[in-house]
Amino acid sequence: MSEETKAFIDKLAAGDNAGAGDAFKDALRVKVGQTLDAHRKDMAGNMFNQANPIPEAEAHSDPKPEIADPGSFDKEGNVIDTVEKDGKAELDLSQDGTADTMVGVDVNAGEPNS
């Protein structure tokens, strides 16, 4: 038993609660300090003597995402389109290049024959 612990017990038995509180804090401070010092010495001794070296990091496997053109802004904060478009959608919904045919569907159903 350490001297600090003995002092704590003696002051507690004597009824000196304030002194026992200080003795307890001292005993705890010494115990934590000794533990930290032992851990510090252990780490310093093993710092450069690693049995298991740190593995190399693996390359990141995901491709980088495409970044959209940020565009330009006027003084009011409106986006200025740098690529001119006519406002029409550029979607090709045909399966074989012809817009009037779909497999199994008559696209002219319900229309009068001319």
Tell me what you see in this structure.
This protein is mostly helical and 114 residues long. It has two helices and two strands, in the order H-H-E-E. Strands 1-2 form a two-stranded antiparallel sheet. A hairpin with a 5-residue loop joins strand 1 and strand 2 (79-80). Helix 1 (3-14) runs antiparallel to helix 2 (17-46). The protein is elongated. The model has no long low-confidence stretch (mean pLDDT 77).
Looking at this protein, list some descriptive labels:
mainly alpha; 114 residues; 2 strands
Detail the topology: elements first, then pairings.
Layout lengths: L2 H12 L2 H30 L25 E2 L5 E2 L34
Antiparallel strand pairs: 1-2
Helix pairs in contact: 1-2
- Count of helix runs: 2
Beta-strand portion reads under 5%
Strand order of the largest sheet: 1-2
Order of helices and strands: HHEE
Summarize the model shown:
This protein is 37% helix and 4% strand.
